[in-house]
Each structure stands twice: as C-alpha cells, then as structure tokens.
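User: Before I run my own analysis I want an independent prediction to cross-check against. Here's the chain; please return only the structure tokens and, at the end, one sentence I can use as a sanity check.
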Amino acid sequence: MILQEKKIDDLIHLAEICIELLLQDSEHYPEAFKQYNDLLIEHEEIFWSLFAVDMEHVIDQQPIESWDSFPLFQLLNDYLRQHDTLSNGRFHQQLRDTFAPLVIRYVDLMESCIAQSIHKDNRRRANSHKIERRNNEFKTEENKRRAEALKIARQDDEFKTEDNKRRAEALKIERQDDEFKTEDNKRRAEALKIARQDDEFKTEDNKRRAEALKIERQDDEFKEEERRRNALRIHNNRDKYK
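Assistant: Structure tokens:
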C-alpha cells in the first residue's frame, strides 16, 4: 500500500514537471508555436501519450476504493481544460476515460454526501422549526400564564382596593358610631344632669310645698285659735251683760 502511494506521488511529481516543461516551451518559443502550430500540437499529444503509458500502469494497480490518484486527475484536468490546443484532445479524452469510474464514484459520493447533508440540514431545520414552534408555544403559554398572573394580580389589587374601601368605610362608620356614642353619652349625661336638676328642683319644690303646707297649717291653727279666743271673748262678754 505504501509502495502504491509512492508510485502515485512520483507520478504526480512527474506530471508537474511535464506541465512546467511545456509551459516553458510555450513561453520561450511563442513564434515557433505560431509557425509550426499543428506540428507542435502533435508533439505535445505524443509527449503526453508517453506519460499516459506510466499513468495507465500505475492507475491499474490502484485499489478500486482508493482515492490516492484523484489529485493527479485534478492536476492534469485543470491544466488541459485551460490549454488552447490540448483541451478536449486525445490525451485529455484518454484522461477522462481512465478516471471516469473514479470521477463517477466521486460525483456519486459527493451527491450522496450532499444529499445526506441536505437531509441532515432538513432534519436540523425541521428540528429547529419544531423547537422554534415549541418555544413559541412555550412563550405563548408563558405569556398566557403571565397574563393570567397579571389578571389575578390586578384582581387582587382591585380586591385589596375594594377591601381597603370597605375597611375605610367600616372605620368611618365605626368613628361615626363612636361619635354617635359620644354624642349620645353627652346627651345621656345632659339628660341625667337635667334629671338630677329636676329631682333637685322637685325636692326643693317639695320642700317649699311642705313649708307652705306647714305655714298653711300654722295659719289654719292660728285662725282656729283666733276663732276660739274670739268665741271665748264673746261668751265672756255675754256673761257680763247677764
């Protein structure tokens, strides 16, 4: 396996040298390429056909599942696609045919990876949407609970306000009752005072009446005594005239 990797590395290095050599030729002899264009194109195709012999030999020894030779295809294909005369030429077509199974496997693998990635991404998105919906439902439920809590809090505040009003009204009534009791006690005290004054007046009046009755009796007794004395005097005077 290590030997096969070494062969691939050497082949890639050889391809880089060949590409560099042909580039130098085109740079140093541009006029020759213009004058003998067809001949030089054929020369390049033959040059690459010689390289293809070693390439085919190394590629045939590669395991089917190996990707070690794929960098070689990328290197040569990128060079040939940009070449004015070798693009779609004999060696370019041979390169495509040789690496077609590998490229097909690569494309299939990429498609599979992309499909898996899309599937995973869709699953992630679906899970994300699901989580987002759950979060939205949770937020909606949380908002409902908060709204309900605020409603209950407002009801509690209203109840407290109403209860405070009732307590204030009760305190007001209680104060009014206290004031009424105080006023009633004052009235009762005043009534008791008046009653005592009435009793005192009645007692004094009774005393005056008793005194008046006593004086009246004394007057009656005095008058009776005066009548008796007068009657006795008259009787005595009668006796004198007899």
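Sanity check: Helices lie at 2-28, 30-35, 37-60, 70-82, 90-241.
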